[in-house]
Every structure is written in structure tokens, then in C-alpha cells.
Glucose 1-dehydrogenase 2
Amino acid sequence: MGRVNFNFTDETVIVTGGSSGIGREIACSFGDAGATVVNADIDPNPKDVDADRPTHELIRDNGGSAVYVETDVSDPEALAEAVSTAREHGGVDVMVNNAGWFTRGDLSSIDKETFDRIHGINAGGVFFGCQAAADDMRARGTGGVIINTASISSTHAQTDQIPYDSTKGAIKMITRGAALELADDDVRVNAVAPGHIATEFGSGAEQKEESVEAGDLAKPIPLGRPGYPEDIASTVLFLATDEANYITGEMVYVDGGWQTF
């Protein structure tokens, strides 16, 4: 499946968590579409089994423009630094708050350190990412687009996932609240909620397409397959275009119909 054909020439896009999985595909798609991409991640090296080089190098090898900034999204100062890097390329036109962390554990087993960590990365990273991008967009007076990565877990509780599910529910309300606050500044804020996506993060050891489609991951999905990172990337790019200029405060579910159950 090829990347979508959009044009983001002369625009600068920050993608947090752009080194692997969904974030890597989003970053590369923006790079293919002409944007200057800032990959803001804790580590430039991809965690994907089949990836052979960092995202920013891959974008450059394909003729695009990209840089890497070491970023711990749970640290607001690190996110501000990523925005400062984007300013060197004109400022933030699109902010994709994608970085996230997943852990399992039942109600009795999750300790405070784990709870604080997942909320700091997933919810805090989105909140402070919105804040840092909005400050730049407001200062420049040019408007902009912020897109957050949520999940089907924002509305559906799952066994042994209370900390994770609660962060994704928080992202839903951060998105809506920020959309309200930033509407007068011509800044649109939306979220994409992936379903079961065939990535290292989303499917664990079942990384290969054939093993994912043969496994339990695909069984409850009406379209009969898991999603792939490019399914999410194409939605993100659409939401960043002028064609989506009347969409804000929305959660767009990209789940193959999973929520119809």
C-alpha cells in the first residue's frame, strides 16, 4: 500500500514518537508530501523489526527534509525545544502528538511510578505538545493544525488496561478543550483513534502481515483485517489539509468498523 499524495511543501511538521510504527509512517508520509519533518522522539533508532535506519535519514534518502530532536514528551521543556527547532524552519504548521507508551496490569498491581509514567507520556505529552505548538502558532498568527493520537481505548475499557485506557480518554477531552480554546486563533485540533494496528507496538510478536491476519487480532474487525500504519497516516494527512478546514474537536476512529460491535 503506497503513501497518499498530498502537498505540504513549505510547511513544517513535528511528529512526536516518529521513530517507529505509526509515528514513523506519519513522518515519512509528510516527508514524501514535501514537508520539513521534525522527528521528536526519545531515541532516533527505530524499534520496528524490519526498519534499518532512523526516520529522518530515511526521509532525506527519499529526497525530503527532516531533522531529529531528542525529546522526552513527558518533559514540557523538551517539547518546547522541539518547537524551537521547528522555528528554525519557519515554525510549526502541523503538530502531531503521537508518542505513547503501553503497559498492562490489573487494578491491584499498578504502582504509582507506573501510573505516573504512562500518564506523563500519553496524556502529559499530548497536553504539553498542544501547549507548545499553540504558543508558536499564536505568536506567528498564521493558524495551524494539531492532531493527537488517541485510541479505541478512549471509549472502550479493556481488561488490565485501566492506566492506558484512562490516558486515551484524557486525550479525547484535551483535544476537545484545546479545539474550543484555539478556534479563534485559526488552530484546528483533532484526534485520530486507531483500532488494532499491525505494528510492533500494536500487535507484539505478530509483526508480519500474514501472522497478524491469521491471528486473533483480526477476528473482531468487520473489515476482516487489522489496520496498518499507512491507514492512520493517510487520515492524519487529510486532517492536516485545507480540505479538512471545517473539522475541529473531532475524534476520527480508524478501526475497520471495530466499534460497531
Notes: The first helix runs from residue 21 to 32. The domain at 12-260 is CATH 3.40.50.720 (Rossmann fold). The longest strand covers residues 187-194. The helical segments are 21-32, 55-61, 76-87, 112-140, 162-182, 200-203, 209-214, 229-240.
